[in-house]
Every structure is written in C-alpha cells, then in structure tokens.
Design brief:
Blueprint lengths: L8 H6 L1 H27 L15 H27 L2 E4 L4 E8 L2 E8 L7 E4 L8 E2 L2 H4 L7
Antiparallel strand pairs: 1-2, 2-3, 3-4, 4-5
Length: 146
C-alpha cells in the first residue's frame, strides 16, 4: 500500500507550467475527438461500438484509427498528471488538486487551467465552490505544522 504524498505549495506550484502544457494539448484533443466521434456515429460505426455490418469502409477504418491515436494521446497526458501526484477533478475545466496539510488538516491545493499559479485551497469535501485563497504562510511553507 502506498502512502499519499502531501505537497508543499512550492512543490505543487512547480508543476503548474507542465500542467498548463498538458491541458493545452487536452484542450486541442477533446474537440478533435468529439468531431471524429460524431463522424463515426453518423456512419453508424461509433468508436468502441460493433463494426458495421459487412465490410468496413476505408473512411471508417481511417477515422477509427485516428480516434484511437488521439484517445491514447489524451489518456497519456492525463496519466502524466496522475503520475505527478495530481488528482484530476474536471478534464473540461482543467481542474487539478494536490494533497496538502494546512493547520494539521488534510486539504487540497486547487489549480485550474489558465491560472498562473496555485492560488487556492479547499477542504476535501468542499470542491471548487469552496476554494479559499492561498495565504503568504502557505507559500512560505508555514501551515501550522511546525
């Protein structure tokens, strides 16, 4: 059993440039995947569905291969975030949380695609709506544990 990794604000914040790159790629991949899915659906051959009756047209084969490649790229990007210790909360929004200890409590640092740094934290149950601003003591690593 692995133990959870608790980040300092500085550790998590160092990951922001890479998170921004990843979600930049994700933001490009998702509409492409949707468009290909719709094309395949219109052809009666959605990805993951049974092949259409009879021989598969070259268009369907090409679109399915393209969809699969883009999907694998998207999955790879999201796995990288998990490998870094981030918890993806919303792919569309680009929302990632990191475990953090504040005043002796387990909370989450919260970053959203487009934000220049991790500027918020929230209680484990609160989610995005419960975000509170990071304070200077968080940035300095003084969170009530010392």
């Amino acid at each position: 059993m692995t133990t959870a990794h608790f980040f300092t604000w500085a550790e998590a914040n160092q990951l922001v440039p890479r998170l921004a790159e990843i979600f930049g790629v994700v933001a490009q991949l998702r509409p492409q995947l949707r468009a290909i899915y719709e094309q395949l659906d219109q052809l009666g051959a959605p990805p993951g569905g049974p092949p259409p009756g009879g021989p598969v047209s070259p268009d369907v084969r090409r679109l399915r291969a393209l969809f699969q490649g883009l999907y694998e790229t998207l999955t790879e990007q999201l796995r990288e975030i998990a490998a870094m210790g981030g918890m993806i909360k919303d792919v569309d929004r680009g929302l990632v949380d990191f475990l953090y200890r504040r005043d002796g409590r387990e909370v989450l640092l919260c970053w959203c695609y487009g934000e220049a740094e991790i500027g918020f934290w929230h209680d484990l149950e609160a989610g995005f709506a419960g975000r509170r601003p990071i304070e200077d003591r968080d940035r300095a690593g003084r969170t009530g544990l010392h």
